[in-house]
TrEMBL record:
Organism: Bacillus salipaludis
Record-given protein name: NRDE family protein
Pfam families to which the protein is assigned, alphabetical: TANGO2 (PF05742)
InterPro entries, sorted: TANGO2
Amino acid sequence: MCLILFAYQVHPVYKLIVAANRDEFYQRPTLPAQYWEDQPEILAGRDLEKMGTWMGVTKTGRFAALTNYRNPKEITDGKRSRGELVANALAFEGHVSDYMQTLVENKHQYPGYNILSGDINELFYYSNVGGELRKLEPGIYGVSNHFLDTDWPKVNKGKEGLAEIVLGDEERLGSGLVEKLLVLLQNAEPAPDEFLPHTGVSLEMERMLSPLFIRSEQYGTRSSTVMFMSDDEIQYVERVFSRNGVKDGEFRIKM
């Protein structure tokens, strides 16, 4: 998952609204969002290479999502798969803060990451690179492949778009929010060179990775996910894509 935009306790009905893109190599085998056969309380996509996930929710309202921290010089040999962090967060039976504390204690076991986990009442953020475990206040946030709310073009554009959509929902019924958020997530306009971050990859790669929605032959946005969570309902919509951003299916689930 390379971009997570979310509005936490901002909308009067939907206390958690998430709009996220997962970017990955097209050749990596993946299952779309569904209830897991081995853990039927979990609704999520699944990475079939490591059997973890990048984002999901449970029937009881536990949410978790993750992005990688981009550092091409990082040595990852011998480290565990980051996808298990989200799966474990969703399966954890205790309080979410206790789970997040275990991540702090074991931060060196995984390559660099950002993780969100919680529900409509408490939401936590942690990066094993930044090192600070935060309980989030109400607000509109964005995280890509650096830290939470880093001043990257795609994060700023995403947060501005999310705020306009969520705060402009005057009827307070969520009408049309899903489609508006999916349109936002499919914005493929690259950032101007002068605003590109410098993360240790080539300029050409920075350009390719700069839009909210990434298209290329080998790597790109594999799925766009929108989730709404209120006191008594969860809506989960996932749109999946194949090479060069061609739509390949859509899944809509309510619980």
